[in-house]
Design brief:
Length: 399
């Protein structure tokens, strides 16, 4: 295998740094891939909490559909996702042969038999003191998502003990599925960017992290107390590489690294992740029956962005596929699908790029379906997890 890898480096003329990163990922995948089980976890349902990285229709149901060209690459039209297609949570559901999660807030066409999605785009862990219109952040913070789950769980239990229409029952999970389900979390990035957009200093945002994670810990404990046992928790990504941050935040030349990302912002993300990892360790001590997997999404996304030249199909790592104008094809006033009026006629200017499969960033904020699939392929076997177990074994508690 090593000879083949060396030949690959020579053929592609990879720099030493990129080659070492490639080799580390390859070796980690090989080691973790050897961990197998004849009896992988059989999750009957998934309950997801998060922000736009895993929102399958919550914000759209509450405030209006994310219009075209969102969804064009897979759903052939808007599907409640801020992406051209599927999200990581969609690939997680697919891996268990479960249907895509219906948004809890979506009243039409939803089926909650095998789980529910409480995530909404723009969500934070800590509640925001401003409206969506004022701040751009969702009112459905993690504590609200918890209230929704709590009510959902209670009502399902009540309905299961009563005589109700069988058609209605077929749209609900079984009572026992709440303890057998996988609970997924991808949230926290917006807490950091919200502080920066409110003109807080990096130090001030950093000082808020313990309180943010204290509230996160409370929600995990509450779900555990209701019977939840398997938790799959993503850390936050390198938001210092996202066009909407690069475009909107004042940065100096010295703060930009050789890849075009803002170093201090990514350092803030790494600090958050360090404290999140410590929080997960504490939860393991306090919740003895829980199987909690911490997933290093940051490392995977950062590798994808900074080494995209070595992933043959990806190009323009810091440029949005769908947008209008500027260095990063991002404009806060004219987003993906945005139109302008010329002589009284609306003209679509926020168009998608010709081939989203070659793009990492979709709209300046979110990743493309192709990038989401690439990230999922790296994490599914546990290569970037603590403990290093595959997604299919996330119910296994490590001693």
């Amino acid at each position: 295998m090593i000879n083949s890898v060396m030949e690959l480096r020579l053929r592609r003329n990879l720099p030493a740094e990129a080659f070492m990163l490639f080799l580390v990922v390859l070796l980690r995948n090989s080691v973790v891939g050897a961990i197998t089980s004849k009896h992988p976890c059989d999750f009957p349902a998934i309950f997801n909490f998060g922000d736009s990285n895993s929102d399958t229709g919550g914000l759209s149901a509450a405030f209006g559909q994310a219009g075209p060209p969102h969804g064009e690459s897979f759903f052939h039209g808007p599907a409640g996702r801020y992406c051209d297609g599927r999200l990581i949570i969609d690939f997680i559901a697919e891996s268990f042969e479960l249907p895509y999660l219906s948004a809890y807030l979506d009243a039409l066409g939803s089926n909650f038999t095998q789980g529910a999605n409480f995530a909404t785009a723009g969500s934070t862990i800590r509640p925001q003191n401003q409206t969506l219109h004022q701040s751009g952040f969702s009112p459905f913070s993690l504590n609200v998502q918890w209230y929704q789950f709590n009510d959902f769980h209670r009502r399902v239990q009540n309905f299961r003990t009563k005589k109700v229409d069988e058609v209605f029952k077929r749209l609900m999970p079984k009572t026992e599925d709440f303890s057998r389900a996988l609970y997924t979390f991808d949230i926290g990035q917006n807490d950091l960017t919200a502080g920066l957009f409110q003109n807080l200093s990096l130090r001030q945002v950093r000082e808020s992290v313990p309180d943010i994670l204290g509230q996160f810990k409370t929600v995990i404990k509450d779900i555990y107390n209701q019977g939840g046992r398997a938790f799959w928790i993503h850390n936050t990504g390198p938001f210092g590489c996202l066009p909407y941050v690069l475009d909107r935040q004042p940065v100096t030349t010295g703060q930009v690294d050789k890849y075009g990302c803002v170093g201090p912002f990514n350092e803030l993300a790494r600090y958050f992740n360090l404290r999140l990892k410590q929080t997960v360790d504490q939860l393991r001590e306090h919740l003895p029956k829980a199987a909690i997997t911490y997933v290093d999404i940051y490392s995977v996304k950062y590798a994808l962005i900074t080494q995209s030249i070595n992933h043959l199909r990806f190009k323009h790592a810091l440029r949005a596929c769908c947008g209008h104008g500027g260095k990063y094809n991002y404009n806060v006033h004219i987003g993906c699908g945005g139109k302008i009026k010329i002589n009284g006629t609306e003209i679509l200017v926020g168009k998608a790029c010709a081939d989203p499969t070659t793009a990492i960033n979709w709209d300046g904020v979110h990743y493309t379906q192709a990038a989401n699939k690439w990230v999922f392929d790296q994490i599914v076997n546990g290569s970037f997890s603590d403990p290093p177990i595959p997604l299919g074994l996330a119910c296994r508690r490590q001693h």
